[in-house]
Amino acid sequence: MKLPESFYLNSDVVHLSRSLIGKYLFTCIDGVTTGGYIVETEAYNGIIDRASHSFGNKITPRTKTMFMQGGIAYVYLCYGIHEMFNVVTSVEGQPHAILIRAIQPTDGLDEMLYRRNMIKLKPNITSGPGSVAKALGISRNINAVSLQSDVLWIEDRGLSFTDDEIAAVPRVGVDYAGDDALLPYRFYVKGNPYVSKPNK
DNA sequence: GTACGGATGCCCT
DNA sequence: GGGCATCCGTACG
């Protein structure tokens, strides 16, 4: 069952980021469904978070998606190469987002292999935010698309992890964020092979 | 108009 | 473990 819109309206983005671990993320593009369950996330806590694009209430053509009501996708380009998929959360005007950094693939393996130009299944197929987006066929043309749509959605299939099984550590690649770079806003399933590189 | 740097991943050693 | 591709978004003038 799809997570309802109300799930995304919670104003505690760090809690939600933890909650998304074990949820199933799917896309359906050209009739092909691909997806798996989320094993790594990062929370970006709105205008007070130096690591967030929306820090300082910065509204630009790119970041305006983050200011919309929760329950939609925020997709942007990083390093000129990689598309990044985020879940926008909280109410309109509060620009919270959760970066999906890794999933364990379960559905549409062949299509994901094709999109990643891979012959054989290896953990790096969906390890790291750029890889997740590419494997799922996510690009900027689904920016601001609703997670209630039939293109992109998240399901709860009853899979859950205990706090002992989940690590909470500082985020990756946000050294520019000063003290905020130290916040334990990155969550991942300990020992899961699909978790992206810095997994110690 | 132009300059600068980034929420990375891949390939090589 | 390190170098580097690659180009948009943003700020500033």
TrEMBL record:
EC number, UniProt record: 3.2.2.-
Protein name: Putative 3-methyladenine DNA glycosylase
Family the UniProt entry places it in: Belongs to the DNA glycosylase MPG family.
Gene3D superfamilies per UniProt: Methylpurine-DNA glycosylase (MPG) (3.10.300.10)
A GO molecular function held by the record: alkylbase DNA N-glycosylase activity
CDD domains membership: AAG
InterPro entries, per database record: Formyl_transferase-like_C_sf (IPR011034), MPG (IPR003180), MPG_sf (IPR036995)
HAMAP family on file: 3MGH
Keywords, in A-Z order: DNA damage, DNA repair, Hydrolase
Superkingdom, natural source: Bacteria
GO biological process: base-excision repair
Organism: Mucilaginibacter mallensis
A Pfam family the protein falls into: Pur_DNA_glyco
